[in-house]
Amino acid sequence: MPKRLFRKYLPSPERLKGHKALGFLGGILSDPNLWHINRRSLSGAAFIGVFTGLLPIPMQMGLAALLALRFHCNLPLSVVLVWLSNPLTYVPIFYFTYRVGTWMLGMTPSPPHGIDVAWFVQQLVPLWAGSLVCAVTGGLLAFLTVRLFWRLAVIRSWNLRARYRRRKRTRPKDGE
Of 40, 109, 122, 151, whose CB count within 10 A is highest? Predict the structure, then answer.
């Protein structure tokens, strides 16, 4: 059940391997571990995607892909979840992580009186501190959520099969 849901929305390995922009990766994309749809692969990919999506860095998708390659997690899901932070959500996400960082470090958020390099560098410390904490927390929540939903789907599948077998046993046979 969970496999069908993920297969429905994730791009196929053949489609990604045939993409011109990914041609430089060559045989790396042939690793079957990058395409497995199982509890371990998807929960790891959820952690990687959300973690890298909450970091204030350029090339988040590239980092997510490298981490998915390194830890043998589902590559498409890792890259897709990075889009949690996108041009529409950058400002609210990174303002939130900045506020978390200022709270953790006991700083007061300072509006710019005049934007200069010193002020900007000073704001990077709480931004990065808050981003790292939110990235790890968000990644762990995504990891646990995938694990939980996978487990619930397996339990539901077991219950449906047990119910089907009970009905099959109690149903009268033809000719009785």
Answer: 40
